[in-house]
Structure formats: C-alpha cells, structure tokens
Amino acid sequence: MSWLATWVAFVKTVELGSMAAAARRLDCSRAQVSKQVAELEHAFGVRLVERTTRKLHLTPAGEIFYEHALRVLAELKDTELAVQNVVETPSGILRVSAAVAFGRLHVAPLLPRFAAAYPQVRCELVLTDRRIDMIDEKFDLALRLTDAPPENAVARKLAVIKRVICASPAYLARMGIPRVPEDLMHHDCFAYSGARTESDWNLSAPSSGVVTVPVRGKFQISDLDGIVEAVLSGHGIAILPTYVCGAQLARGELTAVLGDWEPVTTFGRHVYATYPASRVQLPKLRVFLAALEAHFSPVPPWERP
C-alpha cells in the first residue's frame, strides 16, 4: 500500500463529496479509490467514512484524520517546492577553500560582486595552505595549486601558474645581477621554510637541462606574503609565482632575473577548481564556477596589462 496515494484519495473523496468525483480528479477508477480508502480503514482499524447511496459522511475518526491529512499533504507540498527551489535557484551557504595568498588576492575580491548577483547565496571563504578534506569538512569547492588534482573529486583547470626569479632594483644595484644560476650561491635567497627545496633551487633551460644550485639566506619565512614583503624591502632574491608579484613586476618594484631559466618546484603549475561529484548539480556551485572562469579566462588577472 502506498500511504501517500491512499491519503490523497481519501482527502479528494472528502473534498469532492464522492469517490466517483475523486476518481475523475485523480484519473483512476472509482473501484481503485474505494479500495484505497478501505486500505486506510484497515490500516487504522477504524471506519473513516459512512457510506450511503447518496453521500459520504465522515466518522469522528475520519474527521480527525482528515484534518491531520490536510496538514501533512500541505507540508509535503511545501517541502516539494522548497526542494525544487534549491534545485533551480542558487541559494544556501557556499563553502570555498583556497591557499592563503592566492585566495586573498584573487578569490576574495570576487565575493562582493558574486554576493550582489546572487543574494540568496552566502559565501564562506576559508584561507589555508593546509590540504583540506572537502567531504569531511563540508566544502563545496577548493581552489588547488597543483599538477595532480585529487582523484576523488571533479577538477576544472582555471589558469596556469608561472614562477619567476626576482628581486628589488635596490637589492640588485647593491649586490649585482646574477647572470648564470651559479651566481645565486653568492646571494641571499628566500625559499619556503620547511619545503623540500629549501636549500636547493632547480632551474631548467632548454639548452642546458636542469641545474641544481645550493642557495642560502640570512633568514627564511614560511608565509608567501612575508617573502614578498622581504624581497620588496631589498633583503634578497626569491622564486615567486606571478599571481603574487605580477603587479610589482609591471610597476618596476621588482625585477625578474635569469629569464632564460625556469624554476622547477614541487608546487603546482595550475590552478584547479575541485569539488565533490555530489555537488555537481548544485546551482550555487554552478554559478560560482562560472564566475571563477569569467575571472581567470582567457588570461588570468595577474597576466593582464
């Protein structure tokens, strides 16, 4: 017995005054409606209607059940509409994770415009360099700087990450411009503290292959923003992604050196938007992905004039 079908048959019978009228409304036979009402009475163990040749009368139990059935069916209808709205309209909380420097510079500025365009969506941007678990931590999307997006998630490539070796003009005027990779051994060089490449830089050139250069620095900083500030202040040379130093390079506040050599790092060369497969159909995710693609394509903002 389908309880929902029997409840609807009963309510329509009461509303329309007869099983025949209910059958016409429900596009079924009168015998089917009669059977459904009888199944309800059997399930409750009590008569719900008194049948006469001309009219149906509700019993006291039938009156109570009718009132409750109306409320339940109305709530079911409201639930159906609410679910349909979720499916069709971007709404709810959108939890996004991004690396600290990248998220601060290139994701956070998107949120005011996105919130204005989709007022029913509330964004939560969590900035962390820690690798998060999207399922356990209930994230809808994570922006990952990687060459190998997680296999248990959907991944969409947004942009290419370029890295340059750079320093401030003041530092280079004081210490000299490195002309070949080996010159870096005589400079203060910043690396990510704790990274596997902290004491060695690997540089690649088409004609020379990969060269490994041991580097040193008077101090190291584990935060990318901190390294940028140290380099801008003239304390040394660093390998920096252009998404954090593109504007400073364009303004002449930083100068790229060893331009024929490409840094080879353990960090990713692409930005991916990754998200659980279970989130694919969510409108809030769909419109946020569209906003990300519009922002980063065809040329990411840090590469634009």
In the CATH classification, which architecture of the largest domain applies? 3-Layer(aba) Sandwich
Backbone CA Rg: 33 Å
Alpha-beta classification: alpha+beta
Order of helices and strands: HHHEEHEHHEEEEHEEEHEHEEEH
> Any idea of the CATH topology of the largest domain?
D-Maltodextrin-Binding Protein, domain 2
Strand content: 15-25%
How much helix, percentage-wise, in residues? 25-40%
In whole angstroms, how far apart are the ends?
68 Å
Query: What spatial order of strands do you see in the largest sheet?
Result: 4-3-5-14-6
The number of domains is 3
Shape annotation: rod-shaped
Short descriptors:
305 residues; 3 domains; 14 strands; Arc Repressor Mutant, subunit A; five-stranded mixed beta sheet; four-stranded mixed beta sheet; D-Maltodextrin-Binding Protein, domain 2; alpha+beta; 10 helices
Walk me through what this model shows:
The chain is α+β, with helices and mostly antiparallel strands and about 300 residues long. The chain has 3 domains: about 5-90, Orthogonal Bundle (Arc Repressor Mutant, subunit A), CATH 1.10.10; about 90-160 and about 270-305, Periplasmic binding protein-like II (D-Maltodextrin-Binding Protein, domain 2), CATH 3.40.190; about 165-265, D-Maltodextrin-Binding Protein, domain 2, CATH 3.40.190. About 40% of the residues lie in helices and about 25% in strands. The chain is built from 10 helices and 14 strands. The protein has helices spanning about 5-15, 20-25, 30-45, 60-90, 100-105, 110-115, 170-175, 225-230, 240-250, 285-295, and strands at about 50, 55-60, 90-100, 120-125, 140-145, 155-160, 165, 190, 200-205, 210-215, 235-240, 255, 260-265, 270-275. The chain has a 5-stranded mixed sheet with strand order 4-3-5-14-6. Strands 8-11-7-12 form a 4-stranded mixed sheet. Helix 1 (about 5-15) packs across helix 2 (about 20-25), helix 1 (about 5-15) packs across helix 3 (about 30-45) and helix 1 crosses helix 4 (about 60-90). It is rod-shaped.
